[in-house]
Specification:
mainly alpha; 5 helices; about 70% helix; elongated
Length: about 130
């Protein structure tokens, strides 16, 4: 029984759900998580490096300052790489994706601007 799982998931029929269209809110949540990782992780890396550097400067020891300076440079490089890896991955996926998966990619990689990927507001009728 060798079935292609992606074909089964993307197939639109009455008995199955369409992963891209019916689960757009889930892909949107994933998109917000990816966006948070792309922005928050580099900021946290740079802030922690700056705190380490400030502590070393307060101690006024030349070797500690030099060590903290090297650590800060490494953290800045890691922050830039973290941001760029996600950005380049998004670009490559946008170039490669075709067919039914375009909705998934649109919702996951552009959650703030993509149409049809948001959450539907539920109407609550008080009785």
């Amino acid at each position: 029984m060798n079935m292609n799982m992606f074909y089964l998931l993307a197939e639109e029929s009455k008995n199955t759900i369409s992963v891209c269209n019916d689960l757009a809110p889930v892909w949107t949540i994933l998109g917000y998580i990816i966006l948070a990782i792309q922005v928050i992780v580099p900021i946290l890396l740079i802030i922690s490096g700056m705190i380490t550097m400030a502590q070393a400067v307060m101690e006024k020891k030349e070797d500690k300052i030099k060590e903290a300076q090297n650590l800060l440079i490494k953290k800045i490089i890691a922050a830039v790489l973290c941001f760029l890896v996600i950005a380049i991955t998004k670009m490559v996926v946008n170039l490669v994706v075709t067919g039914d998966w375009e909705t998934c990619v649109k919702c996951a990689l552009h959650p703030t601007t993509a149409e049809g990927c948001g959450f539907d507001k539920a109407e609550v009728n008080p009785k």
